[in-house]
Amino acid sequence: MKCSLSNLFPGSTPSITLAKFKKLGIHNRFDLVLHLPSRYEDETRISQISELKQGTSAHVEGTIIYSEVTFRPRLSLICQLQDHSGIVHLRFLNFYPTQQKQLKVGQRIRALGEVRAGYWGMEMVHPKCRSVVNSTPLKQTLTPVYPTTAGLQQTTLHRHIQAALNDIELSETLPKNLLSRLKLSGFADSIHLLHNPPPDTDKDTLIGRIHPAWQRIKFDELLAQQLSMRVHYRQRLNRNAPRLKALGHLTRQLLRALPFSLTTAQQNTYLEISHDLEQPYPMQRLLQGDVGSGKTIVALLAALQAIENGYQVALMAPTEILAEQHYHKLCNWLFPLGISPAWLSGSLRKKEKQEALNKIAQGGTQLAIGTHALFQNQVLFPNLGLIIVDEQHKFGVQQRLSLRNKGGEPHQLMMSATPIPRTLAMSYYTDLDISVIDELPPGRTPVITKLVHDNRRDEVLERIHQACLSGQQAYWICPLIDGSDTLELQTVLETHQHLVQALPDLRVDLIHGKLDAANKTRSMTAFKMGETHLLIATTVIEVGVDVPNASIMVIEHAERMGLAQLHQLRGRIGRGTTQSLCILLFQEPLSELARARLKIIYENTDGFEIARQDLNLRGPGELLGARQHGIPMLRFADITQDTALLQCARTIADEMLCNFQQEARAHLQRWVSNKQDYLYV
């Protein structure tokens, strides 16, 4: 049983401390047990001062022979600590009267800190000091250093963790034969070793998290993740959703009217989706494909399958530009079929919005297209059968839940043009069925990517000038709208003004997120109709914009953008028959991360390979946007390094759910507890 902290520390732990524990994710005594050290200090032995080496951490003991407060170059407490072999200086830039008393001349202390070369010789800056007498024993285990927050001391954490370790029975949740087969150490032994490692423990394996004790903890965490998603998947199969038969009336009409044929990959993914829609439980499928692979037409075929069964469909996109682009494109395809989609966005006038709401609520529209406005309380669907969420990773869990709760158990189709690396899919998307469009439609020309230093801007301008005069169109992407004191970036407004002056014989327009909806639509329409040569834009055009005649893109300050964003932006060109060019303007100095990103985007056009390398660079936390989107993250395992453990956990999860259900429940209770409120909706 998991007791709360307040119940277990009545009167001894003030509420302010409990709040700090909660800030660390510690809500009960067992959370304390799983609050594992980030590093260790070795106070089990004493080093001779004469043997100290620069750049290493050392634990020394001696007598203070000098202790003075100096005022130049800044206020500092300077001490000299002497043992029989030599002297080391101790320097404190922030200190208190109690420290001065502890470090006065004649006091015997032990100091632990990093050794570095100082003005007077070897020194330690802000070492950890402890007063000792000749009989003070050395510690018998390495000293754990825990992740903490402001105002919560290591001593407080250590005391409560040790108390929890002594009080809680760390029972085993894995069957004995599995433990033996996997050659894993026991859970209790692993936990105790990580909190209190013996002095002969290899510190490198602890810090590198490759010690057998760490391997057990990481496996348990991965297993809990896999179990929770398997349980969620099985629960979904027991829920009731409308069976949407593939009647084929509308889909056949659409396919006959299209000016192109579906690729093999598009046909295969639609068949997978169509099969899911016919099932009596809710579909939860992710349709992923690289930029320009044709996900929209596959989603429309799915929508038509729901519509011809008498159900409504909601299509939600993260930006108004993308949602409106979907609306206009789908209207062109659907009007000949007698279907009039409804458009709903936050920028609609009150009367227009009410008309759209009435149309949806009365069942007068079979397809509603919009932004976040679709899941507001006043939007009512009487017969919602399918939800399509474009760029699903840009929506929070609460938002996706709000839309799903609009109508019973609708089927869900999520789309993403940001390919998911295999290890990420194995770990975080196991509860979803995944369809992949792994080929581009014929006629798409590969985009050439060039890295160009900002000092060659005039050459870039001339290239744009000549291309536009020959009938092509171009984008010029800027990362910010307003100026910034800390980021000296070219703003879209300044760039627009400069390019209008530099290219007077071209028609140059502007679009950014702060424009009202009418002006955004006007700018995009003019560009799509070929009335504008050069469109200056922020990253609002990152997804969904489709102008085949646009064959050149310049991206300002490419070194400051992420790989997924660069790849998405680059995907706005190369949609026609003209050879396309993406110019990445960068400024120096470049950080190592920026240099690595630019190298990857320059060398690769395959979105899956870019995503794989991005995962290696940033890890899953940033790639998934966990805090923004509510995805529970792994604390100990690293899927880029622990792939073998992840694969093993996937296999064992199925085995436990089939053969060891009681142990599986105990394991989930230990690791997942109350973290499943919005698990993978």
* Rg calc: 31 Å
How are the strands of the biggest sheet laid out side by side?
11-12-10-13-14-9-15
* CATH T-level topology of the largest domain: Rossmann fold
What's the architecture of the largest domain in CATH terms? 3-Layer(aba) Sandwich
CA distance, first residue to last residue: 28 Å
> In total, how many domains does the architecture comprise?
4
By DSSP, the count of extended strands is: 21
Low-confidence stretches: 625-630, 676-681
Task: Give the CA-based shape.
Answer: globular
Output the CATH homologous superfamily of the largest domain.
P-loop containing nucleotide triphosphate hydrolases
Helix content: 25-40%
Family: Belongs to the helicase family. RecG subfamily.
GO molecular function: 3'-5' DNA helicase activity; ATP binding; DNA binding; hydrolase activity
EC number: 5.6.2.4
Pfam families: DEAD, Helicase_C, RecG_dom3_C, RecG_wedge
Please provide a brief summary of the model.
The protein is an alpha/beta fold.
What does this protein structure show overall?
There is one protein chain. This protein is of the alpha/beta class. It folds into 4 domains: 99 residues, no CATH class; 94 residues, Nucleic acid-binding proteins (OB fold (Dihydrolipoamide Acetyltransferase, E2P), Beta Barrel); 189 residues, P-loop containing nucleotide triphosphate hydrolases (Rossmann fold, 3-Layer(aba) Sandwich), CATH 3.40.50; 158 residues, Rossmann fold (3-Layer(aba) Sandwich). It is 40% helix and 18% strand. The chain has 25 helices and 21 strands. It is globular and about 95 Å long. The C terminus is likely disordered.
